[in-house]
Design goal:
about 550 residues; alpha/beta; Rossmann fold; 13-stranded mixed β-sheet; two-stranded antiparallel sheet; 17 helices; 15 strands
Length: about 550
């Protein structure tokens, strides 16, 4: 512990970048570890006016000292809990937290991309405080990117320069900023680990598949998401036109006219809408805007093809990867099934709706019901399905929304990558510190490790509290942070926090061999393997699997 640094807590810290001077501050974690904080640093021009929906532009130099002692506003978004629009359209800012500003060797850099279903999220201390990471000799970067239509609206007319994926281009520009300036924070620009969770992981995987990020990162961590998840791969649609019509546009579906209307619309309206039709809802499409295959090739095109088609030849097959999920991802849907139990009856009546969309193309519509019934038996065996078996239905959603597509990603890595792939399963079921389960399930007495519960142990948030250093929860915090930090330092996740366990990369012979992170650590075959393998069999053609 560096008491000299701790005594400076709250003091200002000035740094001079080629862009201009910034003012940060010396801080202390909840466990009395000293670090330096620089928050709300602009990495792009404000994406306003004619820049709305378009690729971000690099930030211009400034004069004077820019105050970077607090996080910028969250990106403009609709709060799904209270229905209120929050945040700002001017949102392209990042935060840098560094353990030391000077050391013999520059520190490894960890860049985090938040999740939130592409329509909500924020890089603020309220949700993603750096306290746990600042126990390690690393630099942590968190960043805002545009959400909903502002980040993902797409128009087919090349003259308009709105092909989509502006949010992914925000993230790429932030990575270029890191490459150019992170050395001023004692970070190593040639040692960057990118990690994301849920939709953030889907973004990170999309960036792995893009030529735009070649040489901007050295390794990746994907938590509970990937670019293969069906909710990422919505087909190209007329969402821009639907959005304009929703807010009063009466013209034809002409891209230039639609863009003109939307660029003049009040910002709040761009994140307030209901655009999915009944057919799309039945297919479980969850949101209208997200990463897409861009309709034409431009200089900054991120996804020229579907992720499935990029897996074989992507440059990132030479980059090490940690990937995994939580043991009961489907709890994410708890409130929805509780409020709308008719969904369960619908699945019983129309079992074909639980089939992965990609698998349907391998069968005739007449076969869909038979295959759906087989899946129901797989999840409910030996009992018959009933509308009272909510946890079984939640398990189905876990596989459909997250687990099986992560498994497909792993199979692709084993087939095509020449770098290490490490698989984990997060199964730590704390009675009160799995903070996301509490959000999904409210006051109901529910156990299980829900989607995003691992974030409770990687970031300190407004919902967190300082757990005792002799608690099981603290041990899990140290394990997760130790794994990520070790991986960021040398591409190997083995660290003192998981000894005597030795975590080996996956091999073709067993693609389901994972580090199981629970009260105890173990190397084990995924308990979900039988269901994953059965889902694999739905894909009649091998090339449809990955």
């Amino acid at each position: 512990m560096n008491w000299a640094e701790i005594s400076l807590e709250g003091h200002e810290q000035l740094l001079t970048l080629p862009l201009g001077e910034i003012k940060g501050q010396c801080c202390q974690t909840i466990y009395a570890q000293a670090y330096y904080s620089f928050e709300g640093i602009p990495y792009a021009k404000p994406p306003l006016g004619e820049l709305r929906f378009k690729a971000p532009q690099p930030v211009e130099p400034w004069t004077g000292v820019k105050d970077c002692t607090q996080c910028a506003s969250k990106p403009l978004q609709k709060n799904s809990r209270i229905g209120k629009v929050e945040g700002s359209e001017d949102c392209l800012y990042l935060n840098v937290y560094t353990k030391q500003l000077k050391s013999e060797q520059p520190l490894p850099v960890i860049v985090f991309i938040y999740g939130g279903a592409f329509y909500q999220g924020e890089a603020t201390r309220n949700v993603y405080g750096p306290d746990y990471f600042m126990n390690e000799q690393v630099v942590l970067v968190t960043l805002n990117y545009r959400l909903c239509s502002l980040g993902f609206l797409s128009l087919a007319d090349p003259a308009l320069q709105v092909p989509g994926n502006a949010a992914l281009k925000d993230q790429i520009l932030a990575l270029k900023w890191v490459r150019q300036y992170i050395a001023h924070f004692n970070g190593d620009p040639n040692n960057v680990t990118l990690f994301g969770e849920s939709a953030g992981a889907a973004c990170v995987h999309s960036l792995m598949l893009s030529e735009q990020t070649r040489d901007l990162l050295q390794r990746v961590v994907l938590m509970s998401g990937c670019a293969l998840n069906f909710w990422v791969n919505m087909p190209q649609t007329d969402m821009a036109y639907r959005l304009a019509k929703f807010h009063g546009y009466n013209g034809e579906n002409i891209d230039a006219d639609v863009l003109c209307f939307l660029q003049q619309l009040e910002p709040d309206k761009l994140v307030q809408h209901s655009l999915l039709n009944e057919e799309e809802r039945q297919k479980l499409y969850m949101f209208p805007f997200g990463p897409i295959v861009e309709p034409y090739i431009s200089e900054d095109c991120v996804l020229p093809k579907r992720p499935f088609e990029l897996l074989k030849s992507t440059w990132s097959n030479r980059m090490p990867l940690i990937i995994g999920a939580n043991s009961f991802e489907g709890l994410y849907m708890y409130q929805r099934l509780k409020m709308f139990p008719q969904i369960m009856q619908m699945l019983l009546n129309y079992p074909e709706r639980i089939l992965p969309e990609d698998a349907k193309s391998a069968y005739t519509p007449e076969q869909w019901q038979e295959m759906g019934e087989k899946l129901l038996k797989l999840f409910f065996s030996p009992k018959q399905p009933s509308d009272r078996s909510m946890y079984k239905f939640l398990d189905i959603y876990g596989y459909k929304l997250f687990c099986h597509d992560i498994h497909r990603c792993i199979l692709a890595r084993l087939a095509y990558a020449n770098a290490s792939t490490y698989l984990y399963r997060f199964d730590f079921d704390s009675p009160d510190f799995n903070l996301y389960r509490a959000k999904y399930c409210g006051l109901d007495q529910v156990r299980g490790v829900a989607h995003a519960d691992d974030l409770s142990y990687t970031f300190f948030s407004n919902d967190s509290w300082k757990v005792s250093t002799d608690s099981a929860e603290y041990k899990i915090i140290r394990r997760l942070i130790g794994i990520i930090a070790a991986f960021a330092k040398n591409s190997d996740p083995n660290c003192s926090e998981i000894k005597p366990i030795v975590w080996m990369p996956l091999e073709d012979a067993n693609p389901n061999l994972a580090l199981n992170i629970s009260y105890d650590l173990s190397i084990m075959e995924l308990p979900e393997s039988a269901k994953l393998n059965a889902l694999d069999e739905l894909f009649a053609l091998k090339e449809q699997l990955y």
